[in-house]
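Milestone M4 deliverable, item 7.
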Amino acid sequence: MHGPHDLGGRDGIGAIDPEFLEPGIPDWRYPFEGRMHAVTAMAIKKGAFNLDEQRHGIELMKWSEYLDSTYYAHWLFSVEKLLNDKGFITHQEIDERMAELGAPSMTPHPAKPETLSPFAQEMIDILWKGTPHDVPADAPPAFEVGDAVVVRNLNEATHNRLPGYLKKTPGVIARQYGAFHDPAASAHQQIDRPHQMYMVRFTATDLWGPDAAEQFDLYADLFEDYLEPANG
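Output delivered:
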């Protein structure tokens, strides 16, 4: 990954705002956020797009717009773009509807209805229980527990789930999970391609050098194509 959505582990960003370390932060800061979450989940369930497409849509935001907007505003950008690109509704139609509505009032946190439709209950079950992403493997894993590996220096515009700060870092395979669907194939081809996944252990020294603030091991779940043998 590249850009402002991939800041984890980087130097010079500054400390985390203490506000976000305190308990009691509301689930939804602005009235539209819960609705945005629901609209996105329902669109995915109805087959308008998939989760990896939605994530990649966020990555396509201009950096200035990304940094000057909130978390669920990123979701809004991606969902509107996908619905437009896939022919469900155009940007112009959305703009016209917004002009028609003006600035209607919005209940900040509406109460859950006493009676739910079957689809609403299905959506609640999905949101709380999640959906499995493991798939049958079509090839054996290339690495075994204990193997020394290095994270590849990927610089691709396509969607992936590789944190940028891990690139070129040596690590050791700590666990082999089996195959899960490939996020790039899902985002760009809308297919469910098996991709072996591993838990990889990294030391703080290998990640941030001998002057790392703390000495600890970091574990990251990474797909096979993100890795290569350390002696390769």
